[in-house]
Amino acid sequence: MVKKHTSTIALILAVIMIISILSVSTGGFGLLNVKAEQADTDVKIAGDISNVTGIDMDTILKMKNEGLSWNEILEELRDGKGGSDRVDRSNMLLNQSLEEELINQLKKEGFKEEEIIEARLLIERVQFQLNEITNEEQTVSIGSDFGAESDINTYRNLAANIDLAGCLPMLLRLRNDFGSFEKVLDEYLYCIQLDMDLSLYIKDKEEYLEAKQIKAAGKNLITVQNIEEVMLMKLQNQNTENRDTVDNFELDQAGSQLPGQDVAGNMVPDAPAPKIENLTPENPADVLMNEINEIDPMRNN
After folding, report:
1. Is 106 in a helix, a strand, or coil?
2. If DSSP codes are grouped into helix, strand and coil, which group holds residue 282?
3. Which of 68, 74, 77, 144 has the fewest beta carbons under 10 Å from its own?
């Protein structure tokens, strides 16, 4: 029986909604491209659901190919269907490049599997966004509002130095201190930018805060929110470029045609002038009188 994971299911629903909105906003780039992009999107979403529920990804994709919506799939999994394909959560985490010893240690400290997965998904989401932002082929132009010294190298440094195995325990152990997983991850990002070690906070909180205050003076440090804003800006820029490409193509096609010709150069006959009927409603009294006149024998003689 699949357990209910309300918070993680809600997270996936939010991701699905965002991806759907972005997919609609991109416009058309050809049927084949749209299908390929949709297939990639389905695989990513199925992977996220598989990570949360433990259900084999192929099983989830099969349900999708059968015509179910993502909401319907989540409802079925939440109700316990597909449970025969569920794998042991600890083995699933081990297969995802984390040492079993680390997971067991976190469980011994009292952290639930749902908490471990939620924290992990947040870290991996930020890692993915950083890799997209620093992609050499499509590097986004970063404004001063989005990071330290507007330097793409700062984002590259973050992308290269986030360690899942080191970051995950920090998020779990310090969430109560900072209030949320995201706030702890912000602090972890600060430490990378300031060349500090977040574990010092656990050993000596006062020493950590004093050192941080000195090193962070006058600096605009990157946060999780900054990363998400830059990622959104990059997506918007790509959508704008794609729309411009489509618009330019349509203009080129239109410019190559002569008036009165189709794309193949054949003459197109003039369209007949539309016949506009009188749309003024008839007076009911006049209608009645006309009907009376039609049956009046005096008038029909």
Report:
1. helix
2. coil
3. 144
- Considering only CA atoms, which of 222, 69, 31, 26 is closest in space to residue 133? 222
Grouping H, G, I as helix, E, B as strand and the rest as coil, residue 251 is helix
pLDDT in tens, 235-269: 887 777 667 566 566 566 655 555 555 555 555 56
Residue 267: φ, ψ to 5°: -70, 135
- Alpha-carbon distances, residue 92 vs 59, 80, 165 (angstroms): 16, 19, 15
Give the mean pLDDT of 17-22.
54
Q: 289: helix, coil or strand?
A: helix
Distance CA 256, CA 264 (A): 10
Angle between the N-to-C axes of helices 70-78 and 31-53, in degrees from 0 to 180, rounded to the nearest 10: 20
What letter would DSSP give residue 261? B
- What is d(CA 278, CA 260) in angstroms, rounded to the nearest whole number? 30
Per-residue model confidence (pLDDT) at position 238: 75
Q: CA–CA separation, 168 vs 102, rounded Å?
A: 10
Burial 41-77 (b: 16+ CB within 10 A, else e): ebeebbebbbbbbbbbbebbbebbeeeeebeebbebb
3-class DSSP assignment, residue 38: helix
Question: How much is the average pLDDT of 168-172?
Answer: 96
Q: What is the mean pLDDT of the chain?
A: 74
How many other C-beta atoms are found inside a 10 Å radius of the C-beta of residue 110? 8
Which ranges in 110-180 belong to alpha helices (H)?
Answer: 113-133, 152-161, 164-178
Name the token pair of 186: 């912000």
**What is the C-alpha to C-alpha distance for residues 39 and 215, in angstroms, rounded to an integer?**
46
pTM of the shown model: 0.54
Res 113: pLDDT: 85
More confident residue, 191 or 9: 191
Residue 123 in contact with residue 158, Cβ under 8 Å? no
